[in-house]
């Protein structure tokens, strides 16, 4: 249903250049807020996905930019009807694909405010308030993760940017060696591989270590591989560990990896983009034990910390290891140097101009309090545990990886069915397709031990057990029907 927006909005014929009168500004903003609040109320009753093929969209949207403006409310209505709705609704309570994101309302409003103030959180001179707030949020993260007081960090566009900055810091800490090599398991997110590439690590020196039968990095294989590489003249600079791998949610053995990396003199980066914020809960803290020994940690608040895109974070154990590689001081920015106690956050990563990402985290945490955040993260873990129990009890479904954090990988495979894996892959692909086209939920797939898996990632604070059960029941139903066709 297209949204109807009354068209008493800003009339461009009354415009002077790019100015808009205050009444029209207010009306446009109010209507935008109404659209968003209404969308939230209606979301659960809609499908979690909508999209179109390129041809139709190209015909609809590819027009020359107009010479004269149009009614602002009409333009916004088009954006809503023709563009914004055609997405995966990552905040839908039944969106379980990839790693969803369900922002709180104060976080959304914070992004609006930050854009309205047009904050450039690059340095202390330009943005002392937002810089201090970022220091506060980084300090919260440091305490939650149990990092020492020497630690610090920077908010980034996401987990990929955090990975890149981490490998640049690792390379610098290692003294910029020739023939540098990095190590990661076969469960590691592709962002680490891309980061290695961008950081100048040759693709064949980004070494993929096999994982064990619980999908954790095989420590013996890692040690063997690194020793052989050293003997062949490579210079290992970093191990990238998983603290919530995307496909299975697996957490690598962090204490053992920290021990190993320390002995080898190699940087330990922990990719906690999906799983890291579980650390604010008792259960998550236990599962992530050892994360506090990392040299760097990548986090994504736009995943399991209920923020709108984009906000990730790179934390480093020793802040100087981040400032050394990134600090560049051109004379045209000399006015921004207020001394060591006034950090210029631009000196901790790639970006010069930066949005005020801390504002949304701070506003939402201050508004709801940490108890609500903890409860919402626990909800994901609870629903995932119930989903695993449901799958285990189902005569039709089978778990493909042990539950880790809030990810469940399973497939249709009736006990004692004796169906070959290739046939099961085919059948489960069909189940996924039927879930996609016929069910309001959105589920994505993974390959687990070479088997096609249906995968649920439960990180939305509005998701209830009924939402999860409904998609499991649908998988059982579609699976049962597919089995009858065999
Ligand atoms: C474990 C993990 N690492 C890194 C990333 C990349 O993060 P971003 O998409 O924020 O760049 C993801 C994204 O899903 C992820 O799940």
**Count of helical segments?**
16
Work out the number of β strands.
11
CATH topology of the largest domain: Aspartate Aminotransferase, domain 2
List the helices and strands in order.
HHHHHEHEHEHEHEHEHEHHHEEHEEH
Q: Estimate nothing, just give the exact number of structural domains.
A: 2
How far do the termini sit from each other? 39 Å
Oligomer: single chain
The CATH architecture of the largest domain can be given as 3-Layer(aba) Sandwich
Strand content: 5-15%
Strand order of the largest sheet: 1-7-6-5-4-2-3
Bound molecules: pyridoxal-5'-phosphate
- Assigned CATH superfamily of the largest domain: Type I PLP-dependent aspartate aminotransferase-like (Major domain)
CATH class of the largest domain: Alpha Beta
* Biggest sheet layout: 7 strands, mixed
Low-confidence stretches: 1-8
- Rounded Rg: 24 Å
Secondary-structure content class? alpha/beta
Helical content stands at: 40-55%
Give keywords:
alpha/beta; seven-stranded mixed sheet; four-stranded antiparallel sheet; about 45% helix; globular; binds pyridoxal-5'-phosphate
What does this structure look like?
The chain folds into 2 domains: 119-368, Type I PLP-dependent aspartate aminotransferase-like (Major domain) (Aspartate Aminotransferase, domain 2, 3-Layer(aba) Sandwich); 371-485, Aspartate Aminotransferase, domain 1 (Alpha-Beta Complex). The protein is of the alpha/beta class and 486 residues long. 44% of the residues lie in helices and 12% in strands. Helix 7 (190-198) links the parallel strand 2 and strand 3 (206-209). The protein is built from 16 helices and 11 strands. Bound molecules: pyridoxal-5'-phosphate. Pyridoxal-5'-phosphate binds at residues 99, 158-160, 189, 191, 244, 246, 271, 273-274, 300, 312.
């Amino acid at each position: 249903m297209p949204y109807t927006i009354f068209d008493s909005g800003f009339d461009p014929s009354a415009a002077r250049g790019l100015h808009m009168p205050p009444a029209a500004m207010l009306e446009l903003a109010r209507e935008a807020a109404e659209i968003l609040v209404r969308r939230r109320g209606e979301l659960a009753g809609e499908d979690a996905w909508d999209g179109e093929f390129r041809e139709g969209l190209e015909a609809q949207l590819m027009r020359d930019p107009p010479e004269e403006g149009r009614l602002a409310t009409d333009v916004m209505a088009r954006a809503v009807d023709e563009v914004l709705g055609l997405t995966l609704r990552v905040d839908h309570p039944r969106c379980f694909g990839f790693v969803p994101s369900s922002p709180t309302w104060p976080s959304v409003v914070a992004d609006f405010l930050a854009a309205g103030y047009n904050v450039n959180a690059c340095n202390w001179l330009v943005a002392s308030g937002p810089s201090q707030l970022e220091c506060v949020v980084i300090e919260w993260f440091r305490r939650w993760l149990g990092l020492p007081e020497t630690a610090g960090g920077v908010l980034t566009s996401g987990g990929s940017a955090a990975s890149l900055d981490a490998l640049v810091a690792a390379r610098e800490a290692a003294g910029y060696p020739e023939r540098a090599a990095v190590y990661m398991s076969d469960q590691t997110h592709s962002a680490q591989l891309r980061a290695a590439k961008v950081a100048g690590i040759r693709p064949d020196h980004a070494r993929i270590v096999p994982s064990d039968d619980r999908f954790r990095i095989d420590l013996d294989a890692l040690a063997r591989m690194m020793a052989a590489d050293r003997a062949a003249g490579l210079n290992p600079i970093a191990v990238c560990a998983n603290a919530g791998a995307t496909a299975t949610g697996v957490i690598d053995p962090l204490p053992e990896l920290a021990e190993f990396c320390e002995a080898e003199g190699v940087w330990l980066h922990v990719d906690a983009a999906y799983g890291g914020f579980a650390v604010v809960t008792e259960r998550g803290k236990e599962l992530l034990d050892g994360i506090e020994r990392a040299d760097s940690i990548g986090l994504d608040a736009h995943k399991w910390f209920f923020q709108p895109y984009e906000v990730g974070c790179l934390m480093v154990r020793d802040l100087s290891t981040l400032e050394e590689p990134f600090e560049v001081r051109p004379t045209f920015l000399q006015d921004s140097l207020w001394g060591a106690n006034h950090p210029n956050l631009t000196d901790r990563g790639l970006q010069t101009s930066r949005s005020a990402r801390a504002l949304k985290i701070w506003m939402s945490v201050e508004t709801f309090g940490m108890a609500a955040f903890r409860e919402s993260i626990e909800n994901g873990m609870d629903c995932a545990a119930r989903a695993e129990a449901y799958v285990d009890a189902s005569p039709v479904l089978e778990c493909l990886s042990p539950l880790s954090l809030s990810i469940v990988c399973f497939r249709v495979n009736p006990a004692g069915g004796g169906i070959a894996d290739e046939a099961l892959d085919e059948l489960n692909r069909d189940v996924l397709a039927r879930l996609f086209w016929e069910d309001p939920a959105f589920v994505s797939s993974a390959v687990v031990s070479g088997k096609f898996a249906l995968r649920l990632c439960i990180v939305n604070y509005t998701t209830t057990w009924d939402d999860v059960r409904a998609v499991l029941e649908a998988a059982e139903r579609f699976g049962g029907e597919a089995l009858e066709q065999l």
